[in-house]
Design goal:
Chain lengths: 225, 201
């Protein structure tokens, strides 16, 4: 979707705010939200593409004014409610209880099997690379044009490189297609390519000199030139 | 989900606790599992891991070749890898080329070698500007003046490949041990918004 998350080339957002000696988590709830993501996505309650899309459908004003982990909380809540794992009303009711008594503890529960499987997930990852029988459509050095498409759902083809000419710089393996996987349409794996764009092709006269941009794109985002 | 935004920190904290509590009570998660998994990124997984990889590449030409050929396989030799770094690619800086990494769509970042990203990497300013005016962003926001004779390569990590910048080894480091070299490698130098420290500091 042409959402506010698709930020490449957007102007007027201001300076980069670098925090010196930034902690990994700024407070306990950032850590709790991060851990809750690991435990829920890690158990397959939703997938990475559904997680990302849940952030993209936030209202643009909300997206731009809220913190990173507020984005995460929004999408975890949305996905768990949609999957029927938690209920909106019970979540709201429990939130009210914690607002009245912010120091109340979260009930503790030990789950050694989950602890081990999450540690394993952190160490080994969860690759979305898949074997496909089809041959890749493109090879390194091929000239390509990105499609001029504006899907309403999730996509990883950024707006700033749509309908642009580029060259295949690296040819990768096939990966789960986010456009399908975010919407329950299966994995539909496709080859991914790192496509090189000259800055002039993308930004015209506004391009800085001696700049090239590499964007990783799924095969169906591209057409041969 | 909130009706008004942004939510206050008090409200976010309450919602996070409510979510965690419900999942615990339903038997879906364990608080120990969450604390341990998230805690790994506070202790074991961070830029010091990537610094070890870079120092090895600076010291061992064979390893450097492997790193540039297949970064995930090279890192696995050092027992480095995992979530959000299943498919890593290292890109090398030189006198002619400066690489910088961004994620314009979200906040993709090579967790196994750099840990979790800093806020500036995740917020709209860096993400919007780095693809359009990298030289300006590097100079004005990070104090890194890339000579106009040097090519800038911007890597937008829009799929599941994660990029690590291999910075240039600083001068005056001949004879330093890998451990000493690793102490010069900064997080920012592996994103491409900074240079490694020099032996003089």
């Amino acid at each position: 979707m042409n959402g506010v998350h698709d930020l490449g080339g957007m102007q007027g957002l201001g300076g980069v705010d670098v925090e010196g000696n930034e902690p990994v988590f700024h407070n306990p709830w950032e850590k709790a939200i991060f851990g809750t993501m690991l435990a829920t996505m890690g158990q397959g309650m939703y997938n990475l593409d559904e997680f990302r899309h849940g952030i993209e459908v936030m209202s643009p004003a909300h997206y731009l004014t809220s913190s990173y982990y507020e984005h995460w909380l929004e999408t975890i809540e949305k996905n768990l409610i949609e999957k029927g794992i938690i209920d909106r009303d019970e979540l709201d009711a429990r939130t009210q209880e914690f607002l009245k008594d912010p120091a109340a503890p979260v009930p503790q529960r030990e789950d050694p099997d989950l602890a081990e499987s999450l540690s394993q997930l952190v160490r080994s990852g969860a690759s979305t690379r898949r074997e496909v029988s089809a041959k890749p459509q493109f090879e390194v050095g091929d000239r390509v044009r990105t499609r001029n498409v504006h899907p309403r759902g999730h996509t990883r083809l950024p707006q700033y490189v749509r309908d642009k000419q580029g060259v295949v710089e690296r040819a990768y393996d096939a990966f789960v297609l986010p456009d399908a996987n975010a919407h329950g349409d299966g994995e539909n794996p496709q080859y991914v390519y790192s496509v090189r764009f000259d800055a002039e092709e993308v930004w015209g006269d506004s391009a800085e000199p001696r700049e090239v941009i590499y964007v990783d794109l799924w095969e169906s985002y591209l057409e041969p030139l | 989900m909130s009706d008004s935004y942004p939510a206050s920190e008090v409200e976010i904290a309450a919602r996070a606790k409510a979510l965690e509590s419900l999942l615990v009570e339903k038997g879906f998660i364990g608080t120990d599992a969450i604390d341990k998994a998230a805690g790994a990124y506070e202790s074991d997984i961070g830029p010091m891991v990537g610094a070890r990889v870079v120092a090895r590449a600076w010291s061992d030409p064979g390893f450097k070749e492997q790193l540039l050929e297949d970064a995930s396989a090279a890192c696995a030799q050092l027992d480095v890898g995992g979530m959000q770094g299943e498919h890593m690619v290292a890109v090398e800086n030189s006198e002619q080329v400066h690489n910088v990494v961004v994620c314009t769509l979200c906040s993709c970042y090579p967790w196994p070698v750099l840990g979790l990203p800093p806020n500036w990497y995740k917020y709209p300013q860096y993400r919007s500007r780095t693809v359009m005016e990298p030289r300006k962003v590097l100079k004005e926001e990070f104090g890194l003046d890339v000579d106009e004779s040097v090519d800038i390569r911007v890597w937008d990590s829009s799929a599941e490949i994660r990029y690590l910048v291999l910075p240039e080894r600083p001068e005056g480091t001949e004879g330093m041990s890998e451990e000493e070299l690793a102490s010069l490698v900064t997080r920012d130098s592996m994103i491409g918004v900074g240079k490694p420290r020099t032996p003089e500091g």
